[in-house]
Amino acid sequence: MDILKNNKLTAAIIIVIAIAAILIVPRFLDRGSKGISYVTEKVDRSNVTSYIEASGTINPLTTIDVGTLVSGTINTIHVDYNTDVKKGDPLAQIDPAPLKTAVKSSEANNNKVQADLNVAESLYKTNKELYDKRLISKEEFDDSKSRYSSALAAFEQAKVELEVTSTNLENATIRSPIDGIVLSRNATSGESVLANGKPLFTVSEHLQNMQIDTRVSESDIGKVGESQEALFSVDAYPGMTFLGKVEQVRNDPINENNVVTYNVVVLTDNQELKLKPGMTAQVKIVVADKENVLRVPTSAIRFIPPTSADIEGSPDYKENSSYLWIPTRGGTIKPLPIETGVSDDRYTEIASGNIKEGQEVIVEAFVNSGSNINSSYLPQPRRF
Fold first, then answer.
1. What is the enclosing helix (H) or strand (E) of 300?
2. Helix (H, G, I), strand (E, B) or coil at 124
3. What is 52-62+208-289's CATH topology?
4. What is the pLDDT of residues 214-223, one digit of tens each?
């Protein structure tokens, strides 16, 4: 019985080893005397999407800093952070008492000047009729004309002063310039403020739609265009991908430390209000998207064979060409010229070349010297 059990155990071990060998052989092909093991992967057919990566900052579509146009003391603050406002809604009220006094003074002065103008105008018209009939001297007529002109100028000046003081009184109520939300409040009740001084509030459009201001390098900007799709992530939601679309590619260069970038504006929907102003976004702009194409791991195109490898034939390398390395039944390897298309992080499209779906291509090699593997030929930038 023990012998029978041992035989069954031995048979099971052999089966496991055989299965492992079957699974491993297509990936690691030993080349015998040269002691080189090649790692291969199959050409498959799937989608390849090419991206341009950039980082950016999430911002509201419109943000306006709101200050005061008049100096004074703030009596009342009507809003706080995150308050929804409509255009024209009051944000704060500056003490109107001094401004009301100024308006009353301007009105009184305007009334006085108006009366003076009426008298001067009446006298001027009367003297003009008398002068036309040669009943008064030219000097007397000219004097009445000059007084009328002065009174008219004074009246115009008084009207301007009344308009200014009335406008100042109206501006004592600081109002929202747009429909939106209050992002920040930098004012307190009782604070003295100056006209055209610091911003007291920051109001943005509602945050249901946001934009990402990204910076794309000058080497990549030629591939970016309006309406391209974009994917992005933020640190606040690990593992979550948000969608956007390129709205604008700005031509104004940004030069920092002799590095030139361009602002690419990406619009995104934010109905759930997960995205906050100021968040940093890692953006991938989709510049090409190919469906159901032949593709290989990009490492296969970058692969460089070991110097000791048996290469079939005498390959004629061409500069700026791409090659795949194919294992042969005779234990050698051979290069296969191809033309590449779109690439993503892992795969590259095969645009043309004598290669088929399912064919094995080399992506890596290990050289065994004696009892130790002392060298690894990993994917490298092409040397041709």
1. helix 298-302
2. helix
3. Elongation Factor Tu (Ef-tu); domain 3 (2.40.30)
4. 999 999 999 9
